[in-house]
Each structure stands twice: as structure tokens, then as C-alpha cells.
Write a structure and sequence with these properties.
By secondary structure, the protein is mostly helical. The chain has helices at residues 10-13, 28-34, 38-50, 56-73, 84-93, 97-117, 119-124, 129-152, 165-181, 187-203, 221-255, 264-281, 290-298, 305-320, 325-329, 334-349, 358-373, 376-403, and strands spanning 81-82, 286-287.
Amino acid sequence: MGRAREPVLTPAAVARPQDAAGRIRIDRLEVSGAFADLGVFVPIAVALIVKNGLPATAALLPAGLLYLAVAWLYRLPVPVQPLKAFGAIAIAAGIGPNGIAAGALLMGAIFVVLGTSGLLDLAALVFPTSIIRGVQLSVGLLFLQIAWGLVSAPPRPFLDAAIPPAYLVAAALLVILVALLLRRRPIMLVLVSLAVAAAVLRHGGGWQFGPTPLVLPRLDLATFTTAFIVLVVPQLPLTFANSCLATADAARVYFGERAASVRPGRLAMSLGAADLLAGAIGGMPVCHGAGGMTAHVTFGARSGAAPLTIGATLVALAVAFGAGLTGLLVGFPLPVLAGLLAVAGILHIALLRDLRGELAWALALGVGLVGVTVNLAVSVTLGLLLWWGIQGVQSVKGSLARSR
């Protein structure tokens, strides 16, 4: 994974010249790319706010501040997403704000330690490209799975849950088609603007301004123990493999040497710090994600301008509109969320195109399919064992051949 490669996602990476000095310049394509990852962000955030009782301000603030930090630290469109496995389990199990806060604090502490120790950067050296591509395939398939779920079985908090799924599926397919055909243009900005306008119209007035109160979580040993077993353990392999290793790799694929600062250990520290904040204020735990980077880049993001734009937007929403945000979010059209998420998944899977050789393809496909159907930790472990086993056999054969 250590070698930088030329960008292979041609619709995005070569769309316009890069600013070699790393300056942040906001233009319409950067703004379009800034909102490209809402398909993952909004459904989980809405569910945690509506179903799990997280205050809207606390839920959005860690993500917004991490996006602002990303703009300064990396000067690239490094994404910020909710912890997906963590969030899904918390939503399904009905875990309250205290349990979510405990899990966020544990995730933050673990990844700050891993990042500062240098262990993640060392671990990245033993991961071949085929295993990383397998993780990215798993994430792309997961995005498609989530997108299908949004329109085939609409979540109850959303107003679109009352619409027949067949209509939602058809609308999502139209969004996918339009987004793919016009991805070199600021289509994301148009789609998100239309979706926001629809959500505002559905809200029907009665706006409440200002933040929701921040309530410090009440924590004890039992809460931490439950959070670790139920929320943290299932999330750890996904965050390690996708948020740190695969995100660093995707950054190098798209930006080459410009992504030198996007290292696994540094990503672990930035997401860990944000999760410590999320746990302290009872907010939504967050991470980075390779699929989110594909989404941002595909629709125009090239620099820190994109995370600066979305980060400032999230902070403004949290502080100025947090008190009335729930009613707005549940009106966000599901076909747009599902369509954009599906496009990100499709293009993320396209990262596999730089693999060479039957072994690399077999490993990537195996890791990706096992990861999305069984467990990502299991698939990565089996893939690594198989890879290093094959390398060992080839090394022995080479030694025997040279000794003859």
C-alpha cells in the first residue's frame, strides 16, 4: 500500500488542474463536491437524533468541527462520516445518549493511542493493495446495500416512508442516472439544493432558532462495559481498515504526492480527537471513510475548500438551527440520499480497476464479498493470512530454485 500511484478515477481526478501550493479556493465544483457524501451522513444522523434522542446540536457539532480540522490539516477532501456499524447497532438496539457517549469516548481513546504510537502506520506496511481494494469493494457494496434499503424499506422517521417504495426506487434510479451522466458538472450542488428546498417546504414553518442544550452524559462502569462489547468491538475493524488504511490509500490514488500527509496514523488521531469531543458532549461519533472520499472527489472536490464548506455549514446548522433541525432533516427526500449513496458506491468499486493479476483480483473479490456478507474483520484476517501464506510459499520456491 505504500507506493503512491497516479490517479485512476479519471472523471474526477483529472477534471481540472490542481493547486500545487495547497491553497483553499472555493468555487462551484468544490461546493458541489462538499455535499456529495450526505447519503451516508443524513440517514444515520437523523435516526440517532429522532430515535436515540441525541440533541441535534451535539450530533452535528463534532462532524462539523472535524471537517474544519480536515480542511486545515490535510488541504484535501478527506470525508467525515458517522461510525456506520456503531450507528446501525445503536439505532437497532435503541441505545440511549449515555451509551453512545461511552462508546464514542472509548473509540476516541483507542484511536488516539493507535495514531500517536505509530502502530497504524507500521500496520499499513503489511497490507497489500489487493486487500485494501477488497475493503473498498466491501464499503462500495455496503453503500449500495444501504441505498437500496433507504428506498425499498424507507425508515420511519423520514416523511418519504409514506410513499410506495416502487416510486422511491424509480426516483432514486433517475437520480443515479443524472448524477453519473453529469458528474463532471456541479450536479451535486443542484441535487442537494433541490432536496433542501423540498425539505424546507415539507417542514411547514414553525422554525426554532438557536442550539439545543448540551447535556453532559452520565457514565459508569456498566455503561462503558456495555458500550465496548455492543458498539465498539463491531466497529473497530471497520474503522481500522476503512477509515484509516483505505482512506489513506484512496487519497494517494486520487492525489498522489499531495496526499503525503493523509497517513493512517494521522487519520486515526483526527477521528479519535473528534470522538473524544463527541463523547464529552453526548454527540454523534464520527470517522473518516474511503467511500466518502470517492463521493467528494467524483463530484468536484479537489482541496480543503470542500471540507471547509461542509464543515462551516454543519457548525452553522448545529449552532443556529439545532433546536428545529429534526423536522427539517426528516423531510430530506430519500431518493436523493439513496441515489447519491449508490453513485458513490459504484465509483468506489471502480477503484479495483488498477489491480493486476488473477491473485490480486481473487483476493480483492474474496475480501470484499466476505466483508459485506459476513464480517470485515474476518475477511481482512483471512485475506492477510492467505496473502502472506502465498508469499511465503513463493519465497521458499525461489530459495530452492536459486540453491540448485
